Amino acid sequence: MATREFLQQLISNPDRLKDLVDYAKETAFQHGLIIRTHETPNSSEVATYAPFTLFPTPVPKAALLQALAVQTHFNTLVDKISQDPDFLEEALASTIQADDFAAKLFGIYRQVQQEGRTQSIVLGMNRSDYMVDQKEDGTPSLKQVEINTIAAGSFGVSDRLPMVHRLVLQSVGLVEESNRVQDTNRTAAMSAALAKAWELYGQQKAVIMFLVEESQISKFSHRCIEKELWNRKIPVIRRRFEEVSIGGSLDGDKKLFIDGLEVAVVYYRFGYMPDNYTEQSWETRLLMERSLAVKCPDVGTQLAGTKKVQQVLARPGVLEKFFPDQPDVVEQIRATFAGLYSLDMGPEGDRSVAMALADPEKFVLKPQREGGGNNYFGDDIIRVLQEVKTDKRRAAYILMERIRPRTEPNILLRKQLPITLASVCYEIGVYGAYVRHGGEMVLNEVCGYTLRTKNSENNDGGIIGGVTVFDSAFVI
Ligand code: ADP
Ligand code: MG
Ligand code: MG
Fold first, then answer.
1. pLDDT, tens digit, for every residue of 267-305?
2. CA dist 224 to 167, 214, 266, 431, 463, Å?
3. Burial of residue 326 (number of CB atoms within 10 Å: 0-12, 13-18, 19+)
4. Which segments of 93-185 does DSSP mark as H helices, in order?
5. What remark does the entry make about the cofactor (predicted)?
6. Cα angle at 205 between 202 and 206, to 5 degrees?
7. Distance CA 432, CA 152 (A)
8. Which of 132, 134, 145 to mutate to test the pocket of ligand 1 (most atoms within 8 A of CB)?
9. 374 lines ligand 1 (CB under 6 A)
10. pTM tops 0.95
11. Is 375 in the pocket of ligand 1 (CB under 6 A)?
């Protein structure tokens, strides 16, 4: 592989390396691959380059195509689950006894179900993440890490990364390689789904509200989506939970108003973690959930993206329930599943505990959390399981087979990170969006993909947390 050889040479020539790294960073700024800094997350005066890899990463074409091909089925699956209270109730029964966050979300789900749903337009914007597992015989195999059904990000400014990578490769004479870096049109495609939901809501003056966090480090990426919407003359506002709690209300028809503006769509870019909520924001979440606004996602769709649901879906016969007449779809989805094991109380859970304690390196212990940095690996699995294994607290977790991706040499570029040749591994994230109006799917699309790469010494990931960086695929 020319890029690998090139990197080896480059690392022994520090002056040349520094020149190329500077060129890459300057090109990132030039094309708007930028992010606010951790020091000043709410300042519009200061930005840095969004973290990225010096070179794009080789990705097997077959794995990429497989991940793209299955996405519309995952969209359908998530949507079906979100509308199936019996399934969610059963799947999450033990989890909500052990996990307060899942319980709170489920409480809202149940309350809104009992009241009767008011809005028949459903909008989903998700990202299904995969690693390419390296089997013992060396063959690559696509395995799903998880699916994100709330605040799925990493599109926006990173759409410019393929361009930056092409220029970096061209600048060192790797022209043929540069031609294999693909653009993906994810921001436009994801925004089109938001626009479609707004259009179906049918009020020209109603707004799309981005529900955002206090620390707005990714604001430039949000701005990319906003631009797509404004180009369609769709008004966008940004609000935090506290602002909605002060300025938000429902009218007699349950229309949601914020500061006098009718809200057509609430687009959550926040609200996926327990510490995103105060008592007051839970009330605000309920208010929005009960409203006539389209929620992206509604609480049922958020629950459909939990690790517990992922584990239950891997049980024999469960996918068949959702796709009774489509064995080919079942097969396509199931082919991406890694081993997933219940930790509920009972003999099955006992077996999972024993398996994990006997060989922790083969597993990941996962709580119902999002955003990176929450999973347990290796000896930590033993420590946590020893603590919870005899009581129902263990049902807050699931056990997952550990995926072992192949590693590649690359250089991770992040503000203040020393320039070193690292052994890295990547995750493919495939974007999917759908809009359902009552019983009819009016849009169900795969919206491109992203690559996110980390040093393989790090078990867990996360871009904002400082482990993972943006990457693009060099298709092989
Ligand atoms: P989150 O919702 O916090 O992103 P993930 O399931 O994506 O949770 O896990 C976070 C990170 O942990 C992943 O990006 C990946 O690096 C690592 N990870 C998760 N599951 C596995 C697995 N089965 N095998 C190997 N690494 C994993
Ligand atoms: Mg996640
Ligand atoms: Mg993840």
1. 999 999 999 999 999 999 999 999 999 999 999 999 999
2. 22, 19, 17, 16, 18
3. middle
4. 95-98, 100-115, 161-171, 175-178
5. Binds 1 Mg(2+) ion per subunit.
6. 65
7. 10
8. 145
9. yes
10. yes
11. yes
